[in-house]
Amino acid sequence: xxxxxxxxxxxxxxxxxxxxxxxxxxxxxxxxxxxxxxxxxxxxxxxxxxxxxxxxxxxxxxxxxxxxxxxxxxxxxxxxxxxxxxxxxxxxxxxxxxxxxxxxxxxxxxxxxxxxxxxxxxxxxxxxxxxxxxxxxxxxxxxxxxxxxxxxxxxxxxxxxxxxxxxxxxxxxxxxxxxxxxxxxxxxxxxxxxxxxxxxxxxxxxxxxxxxxxxxxxxxxxxxxxxxxxxxxxxxxxxxxxxxxxxxxxxxxxxxxxxxxxxxxxxxxxxxxxxxxxxxxxxxxxxxxxxxxxxxxxxxxxxxxxxxxxxxxxxxxxxxxxxxxxxxxxxxxxxxxxxxxxxxxxxxxxxxxxxxxxxxxxxxxxxxxxxxxxxxxxxxxxxxxxxxxxxxxxxxxxxxxxxxxxx
Length: 407
Ligand SMILES: [Mn+2]
Fold this sequence. Notes:
Elements: E1 7-12, E2 20-21, E3 24-25, H1 27-44, E4 48-52, H2 63-79, E5 84-87, H3 94-97, H4 101-105, E6 109-112, E7 121-125, E8 128-135, H5 140-147, H6 155-170, E9 189-195, E10 197-198, E11 217-218, E12 228-232, E13 238-240, E14 245-247, E15 264-270, E16 276-282, E17 289-294, H7 296-300, E18 312-317, H8 326-331, E19 337-342, H9 344-348, H10 352-355, H11 367-379, H12 385-406
Parallel strand pairs: 1-4, 4-5, 5-6, 8-9, 9-12, 10-11, 12-14, 17-18, 18-19
Antiparallel strand pairs: 1-15, 2-3, 7-8, 13-14, 15-16
Helix pairs in contact: 1-2, 5-6
The site of manganese (II) ion (MN) has 7 residues, from loops.
């Protein structure tokens, strides 16, 4: 498509549609933020919207999440007439995400799930062409298999192979001129979308590690050929390599360690020389995710006027003594309290003696009672009936084994 004086893009990622946060479905919260996102797209009128992976939270997302994505993409692509390029992240199932992608690209929706589908999408402004090259998340074994990259033994080597394939597909790799019918020439601007953990990036608790035992990190240097890299995976918005390599951050806060994040959408202009200038537009939330600190008494006084009591709350309590049934009592004040955390006062001072209640009559209590109380102290939640049944069976078994050993 023909653009104006320079290419303008909107970059977002890590929507995690269908996410469940402490047993609460977030679809309504996500729909609330996506309404704002569509308003931003309508106001900014970018040439293209880039979604850099983790579109869904799970490989088989719930029906409501699929409907929300369908509705959101339709409003942008059909309603506003703005094309969208979307890649798979590590939470997405690449085959499911890219269902119908050949059919939809004619309408301006480009979905790329698998690493071999990295054909560039061409646009242009008055300075010439700009190529958008999708680099979806893929396990090293998948890259070895599908790109024939036998040396891709870890995420870093796999990313090197994926970037190589992406450049070859644009026709820009000098080692393979004209490969795959790509028509880009040296000097053309190329924008990449990728989903990876780049060394040096700041992590958050709600990101699923890419490997067990390792970091799955990749080197920033792989992205040197690109004018701008629209990254997904890290949930804190952040920039690496000047403004050229950027994580847009997640749609909302998905863990309590993100309480201080300001979630946003990234708007980038790519000028004729291929230099990106970046700004952000803030995204608000229906309910904030935040921590409250203090004693039980203080927290139980409730929200200050004008502060949303429906926010998702973690209460960090500093009481020196245990508080019974704290979760249920605080839920009267904050209906969406998710967790209670005890600061050093309650747990650290006297250690387990403090946890076991008043510590005077624990000999009169059953093992089951003691464990249930311990569980609730530590987790902030009562044990479920199933858990109590399982524990009862376990205690019975231990008891009969003790008796058998003694006889
Ligand atoms: Mn993610």
